[in-house]
Amino acid sequence: MELGPGDDAAIVRAPGGRVVATTDLLVEGRHFRRDWSPPYDIGRKAAAQNLADVVAMGARPTALLIGFGAPPGTAVDWVDALCDGLRDECAQVEAGVAGGDIVRAEAVVLAVTALGALDGPAITRSGARPGDVVAVAGRLGHAEAGVELLSAGLREPADLIDAHRRPRPPYATALRAREFGATAMLDVSDGLVQDLGHIAESAGVRIEIDGAAVPVPPVPDGLRLALTGGEDHAFAATFPEGAELPAEWRTIGRVVDGPAEVLVDGRPYRGGGWDHFRLP
Ligand SMILES: Nc1ncnc2c1ncn2[C@@H]1O[C@H](COP(=O)(O)OP(=O)(O)O)[C@@H](O)[C@H]1O
Ligand SMILES: Cc1ncc(C[n+]2csc(CCOP(=O)(O)OP(=O)(O)O)c2C)c(N)n1
Ligand SMILES: [Mg+2]
Ligand SMILES: [Mg+2]
Ligand SMILES: [Mg+2]
């Protein structure tokens, strides 16, 4: 960062003159609950959700800008812990909080903008080609399992509850994807099948997933959660056939010619995935 918080705007260095920019909004009751998550974890999650989108472009995150709204009476300690979480998540990728804005609001809201630097071609959703393999790095379905447990009034198993509270996107290995020839990449926020659908649509390809190859959370309904659960911010990418994959990646399927759709074990997978405007 050339100039951090304190002036009218931050100045972010950009090799090659390109800055990657993305924004994701988090709303209390929708993305987190203050009785489910401590403020530190809400900060970690708000940063992670946005940093993952930068990394999924093949870019190195540099800075976050935070629009913050909170009800009157919100404790200063609560906000301090949230800021600690934002800062610590940024530290995972050597990024920093460059500035923000704070207003009174009916509920806690965090409008986060993440910036990143590209030192080569971006890895977009449209690059997948027939013959590529589909691979994932990171957890799938864990955060959703955590939400289901919390919704049922449970607080265990702790690792699943924590997965909802604090996603752990595998930034480092995703940042190596381009080196290994990745043709497309995204972070899984809304569910694996739904998000791979964005690659299928954007590249005009069909994606075939082998259900048995998909890593699942340790719950009875693991495959459903892995296919439809969002918010672990795993990375899904396509790589040329036969390419060696970076550490932690595993192959779960392939890209073929055909209509833009995602098949699981040979059948279109219907339903599931997060939709903000689905009626109850
Ligand atoms: N309200 C909006 N206005 C303009 N573009 C949007 C809006 N919402 C989403 N997009 C764009 O659509 C794409 C997908 O966004 P989104 O569904 O939030 O997925 P993700 O955060 O997982 O990448 C992004 O390129 C985003 O910039
Ligand atoms: C209280 C609560 N209920 C439900 C969820 C589950 N949930 C909320 S938003 C979401 C999808 C991801 O959020 P979104 O804003 O769509 O992120 P984006 O796809 O833009 O990265 C999920 C799975 C949650 N995190 N918290
Ligand atoms: Mg988004
Ligand atoms: Mg996102
Ligand atoms: Mg979404």
UniProtKB/TrEMBL annotation:
Q: For Mg(2+) 1, which residues are the binding ones?
A: 23-24, 101
Binding of Mg(2+) 5 occurs at: 190
Q: Does the keyword Lipoprotein apply?
A: no
Task: Report the catalytic activity.
Answer: thiamine phosphate + ATP = thiamine diphosphate + ADP
Q: Where does Mg(2+) 3 bind?
A: 8, 53, 187
Miscellaneous remark of the record: Reaction mechanism of ThiL seems to utilize a direct, inline transfer of the gamma-phosphate of ATP to TMP rather than a phosphorylated enzyme intermediate.
Q: Which NCBIfam families does the UniProt entry name for this protein?
A: PRK05731.1-4, thiL
Protein's name in the database: Thiamine-monophosphate kinase
Organism placement in taxonomy: Bacteria, Bacillati, Actinomycetota, Actinomycetes, Streptosporangiales
